[in-house]
Amino acid sequence: MHSSSLNRADLPDARFPYGNLLHTLSSAVTANTDAREAAAVLHQIVDGTDGLLTRLAELLDATADRARAYDRDDGDDDAFYLAKDLADAAVQVRRLGEDLHVVPERMAGLSPPPQSRLRPRAATPPRPPKSSAPQPRRAP
C-alpha cells in the first residue's frame, strides 16, 4: 500500500472546514475587495435570518439542549452548568448580530458612488468678452 507524506493532521481543510471557510472569506476581504464586496461578506455573517451569527447561535442552543439531556439530577451539576454556559453564549452571539446588523450598509457606504454611464454634456461655447467701449443709448 502506498503511504502519503501528508497525514490528516497536516490538512487543515479536513480537520476544520468551517474555520477554514471563514479564513478564506477574511483572506478574500483583505485581498483586493472593494467596500461593496466586503459588505456582501459582512451581510453573510450578520443577516438576522440566515447569517453565520444566527446559525452559530442556533448551534449553541442545540448543544445546550443536548447538554441538558445529560443532566441526571445526581448532584453532579456539570451538564447543568455546561448547558447554561452554552445558552449564555448563544445569547451573546445573538446580541453581537443585533449590534452589527447595520455594518454591511455602513461598509457599502464607504464605497465611492458608481461612475455615471451617461455621456458628458458638450461644453457650452464660450461667450464673447464684453467690450469696454460704451454702448450707444437707445432712444425711448
The oligomeric state is single chain
What is the terminal-to-terminal distance?
Answer: 115 Å
Quick one: overall form? elongated
Biggest β-sheet: count, sense, barrel? none
* SSE sequence, one letter per element: HHHHHH
Amount of helix: 40-55%
Q: Class by helix and strand content?
A: mainly alpha
Give the percentage of residues in beta strands: under 5%
Number of helices: 6
Number of strands: 0
Write the SSE topology.
Layout: H1 12-15, H2 17-30, H3 35-46, H4 52-69, H5 78-99, H6 103-108
Write up this protein.
The chain has 140 residues and is mostly helical. Helix content is 54%, strand content 0%. It has six helices and no strands. It has helices at residues 12-15, 17-30, 35-46, 52-69, 78-99, 103-108. Helix 4 (52-69) runs antiparallel to helix 5. The longest helix is centred in the middle third of the chain and has 22 residues, at 78-99. It is elongated. The N and C termini lie far apart (115 Å).
Question: Which short descriptors sum up this protein?
Answer:
elongated, 54% helix, mainly alpha, disordered N terminus, 140 residues
